[in-house]
Protein 1
Amino acid sequence: MKPNDFIKLMERAKMYDLTQPLSIHTPPWPSYMPLQIQYFKRIAGAHMGQGANGQIIKTSNHVGTHMDGEIHFFGSGRTIGVVPMREWTGPGVVVDLSKDLGDYDLYEPELLMKRADIRKGDILIINTGYHRYAWYEKKSDEVRYFCKHPGPGPKFHKWALAMKFKWIGVDCGSADHPMNTIIRNWHPKLFTEAENKLAGNFGKKWDELFPIDEYYQVMHLKLFPRRLVHAENLGGEIEKLSNKRCWLGFFPLKGMELESAMGRAVAWLP
């Protein structure tokens, strides 16, 4: 393809922003430092018309739409900045499970493959529907968003590795099920709710279906050493891409020391 033909192709392409708005009101992952923004200079604060606005930003990396890096849970992993841009972009699919899932539910490969055309080597984005409870939405519910969202079932992580996905994205607080994280200890009442629902659906207690030694933070601890990372807190125009194949990209800062990084998630369609 000639350069001008490529430019015309991109001019015609429709771009979708899958990023949540970022604000000092954006909740971080529970217990992490929230975003803080402070002006250290203002336009009116200098002589001879040389004033300018300047800000200092202080935050953890796990606020709003962000990519978890390998080194976040794997000490020998790569930082965000050393990962080549080609690993952040590529063909993929946005799978819409929003009508299939409710509080504490599980999703497995069979359901995802039933809903969309998923191919080996894809970027896989999962719309659980829980972006609707993000901080900026009318139905905002921070506890539901972080502590009750659906998560992967027991077979998901091995399937994800076998599919050789470039990265995975979710529209909720974690790529892990919240009850396979420290949240189960922080919220014992919610854990009881989740376990009761699991028993009703599968006839098993939580630790029977998810032995803690194997499934605690499985999406982080088992996948990051294999260079399969994930973006969390996606949203934006995600519902416009339900079950569609598209070109996807995540654009983090090239931070050579960053264990994770906020960024923009973008999709393109013809």
Note: The chain is about 25% helix and 25% strand.
Protein 2
Amino acid sequence: MDTSGQAAFIDRIRSALGHSLDQRRRANGLFTGRSNREIGSILERIKNRTHTERRQLLDRLIEMAEPINLNVIVFKDPSSVTAAITDLIGDKDPEWGHQKSVVTWKHPLIESLYLPDALADQNVPVYITELKASDTDEALREKERARMRKHVVDAYIGVTSADFCLAETASLVMRTRPGLARSVSLVPSIHIAVIHLDQIIADLKELYALIQWDPEGSGEGLTNCMTFISGPSKTADVEATMVNGAHGPREVYVYVMTDSSKSQPGEAGIEY
């Protein structure tokens, strides 16, 4: 595909907007402008981060989360996270209707919580965003997509993990992958993200270095969508009155596990 015409067209738009060549170079250098030495230095810092330094990042995350109504709660291991989610579901009622249901990612960390078993006594179904049909059977896959969308819409709690969590802005970062539907974090009234301590990184600079490095060796880099979530959905459009949950979840929880377990593929991937 010849992209030279497209690039020239975009340059003309930038020039019309008054963007200087230097500004354009800085924008284009978001991922390519750093030297290999600088990227290597950032990756080395992440790799050699001590447990104490990771706890300091956690403290920074908690500090930055409070003003944006993001609930960051620390747990030791998966069993304590499961107990907390079970208690939360027992305490919270759906915004509409009476039937409680939960939708989750098809993800190793979420599977380790054994939520279907834990919630069986409460008669709360747990639905998983997974397409089981063959890639060649598009008709059946579309039926599964419709079923999955209905489960997401009906659920009042969505449970996901994340690729990273940025301490400086209290932002969850999620790259789109099969089985990891964005809608699970955007549609239900309550979003719970479960991560390991080592998935917390400092800032965007570290995130960009990790994306450039591509720890999974899959050439994934920037996927077709990467979602940043900083607290619950909110708006003050009507009479300058702040309302949570206007365009997405009204409550967001980040459950951080501090055990020594390493992140699974598709989570942080920063151990190398």
Note: The mean pLDDT is 84.
Protein 3
Amino acid sequence: MEKKKNLLIALLLIWVAPSFAAKVDTLLIKSPSMNKEVQVVVVTPDAASGKKSVACPTIYLLHGYGGNAKTWIGVKPDLPQIADEKGIIFVCPDGKNSWYWDSPKDPSYRYETFVSSELVKYIDGHYKTIADRKGRAITGLSMGGHGAMWNAIRHKDTFGAGGSTSGGVDIRPFPLNWDMSKQLGEFAYNKKVWDEHTVINQIDKIENGDLAIIIDCGEADFFLNVNKDLHNRLLARKINHDFITRPGGHNGKYWNNSIDYQILFFDKFFKK
């Protein structure tokens, strides 16, 4: 009798326990513009797979300097569970240390074209996506925060929402850092190019309502002031956006928490 009781309890636990079947693919996707393959991690919810699959929205997650396609799955190990809970596809490309520009100096770095065009076309062609700007958002951490806002603003026909967590949204105060001079040339001799390739100078390309925008940064982050500057510029242009500062620095602990709020923001956008 006791054995039957224990078996029944075990079966009930299995029945009520949530079942997460999200799939994590590590792909090599050809970039025609760069004539090379780029590693991309794709997290697909169970809802977007199988015979009864439904089209799901997509969030593109960009890593920071020194990172790779697997950065985000490391920062947020429960991303597959979130994918299943929310019915969202997550796409994490390897952007090298490109800052996600089409470099005016190095033609082998065309990561804006890859992220905003080639990658989106591949994902929409191979996964059950909502193939419309209303079903696409892009965000990232640090360098990837800059890259996400850069691509969202310049390709608002592709992305309906853009975000940045701890983003380097104005690169000019940091002219000697993070290999940016390899992509843009030395700041001292290429100030016009640097002015043209910083996110904070791109916001004149959007009007209020063009993009759903969320920006956050930790109070102990060295990028805090440039994020506050971006926030103030958006306010001056009367562009609605969410802006959050909270305790924390420029590290994985901060991003593990902050991405939850960005996903909630994008999920709300998708459900409008």
Note: The first strand starts at residue 23 and ends at 31.
Protein 4
Amino acid sequence: MSKNKLIFWSALLCFVGLTTYALWNEITRNTAKLEHSISGVILTAPGVGGGIVKTDNAHVLLFDPVTLELAASRILNPFLPPVTFSIGQSDTDRKLSGMYRMLVLTDKDGNPNRPSVGEIIGPLTQQIPLGTEGFKYYLDRPFKSFPEELMSRETDSPENSISGIVKASPRLSNLVSPEDKLVIMLFDPEKGRPVAVKILDNFKLPQKFSIGQSNALGNQPFSGKLSLRILTDKNNQPFQSVPGEIIGRSKKLIALGAKNIEFVLDQNYVR
């Protein structure tokens, strides 16, 4: 065999080997992802869902079947069913295994705890094993409240809330209009997602505020130090900015029980 042919066949074998290795790794990764997630399609029942527009958010939530604590969450946006979904290990910082119960609801104003006209919700499912594919979930009723199993008392004592007063930076105060809403959010710094949301329809800066357990997403308890964000909302989409909206972000993490916080909206909101 000539030297050139030897080089050719060696390169070809090396290429085939690397390609096979890469494909195997991809298959392994996808298999592992499927084994630790639940996937399928979200649909609407007949006569339900006429008020959905693609700018709506859909919150997909997994709950521990025993404690009913929130185990994982994902926001789908834009959302216009039928929509495929997948939720699992990549949507939480806790180790998932076994079976979970799932809930899906739509949200028009950035506050999934507060039902609004046109929002819909589905049932809290029975237990679904991780690794399930092709699961069909139906949004089948107007969103008026969470399932009774998930409801808990509002317990906004000073010890489990954060309160203070918020104002706008003088250079940005002219951007606030009477039609704006004020959105107050607490973020888990590790998960990078909101754990509590409160929206004030009528406000005037400077404005007193308080946010705590009664504003928790899915009525799920939270603890520890959190990041506080407050912003103005002009289009009922707090996670989508439009010109003229402003925001403030806490410079350091804030523990529950903090009060008399002086908070400033000091940035243009760009997302």
Note: Residues 38-149 form one domain.
